[in-house]
Design a protein that fits this description.
This protein is an alpha+beta fold. Helices cover about 45% and strands about 25% of the residues. The protein has a three-stranded mixed beta sheet.
Length: about 80
């Protein structure tokens, strides 16, 4: 079986944390990846939540850095609609 690409690993990790956000009425969607910069879209309750930036940095980004063993990963909320 072929080794997963970094992008595939990122998408897999995001899918692992989606249920946690969905339990709170929100969701997350992978948008794109440029080097170590990952764009995601927060949906549902997460989209308008004042804590969304903390969720991205302290939750999603921290989780991805742990799972991927890469401390240079940066997660940003995409402004695309």
């Amino acid at each position: 079986m072929a080794e997963m690409t970094l992008e595939e690993k990122v998408i897999d990790a995001i899918n692992q944390i989606r249920p946690s956000l969905q339990n709170d009425g929100g969701d997350i969607e992978f948008v794109s990846m440029d080097g170590k910069n990952i764009s995601v879209k927060l949906l549902g309750a997460c989209a308008g939540c004042p804590m969304s930036q903390a969720t991205l940095k302290n939750g999603v980004e921290k989780y991805l850095r742990h799972v991927l063993q890469d401390q240079e990963i940066v997660v940003e909320n995409s402004l695309q609609f």
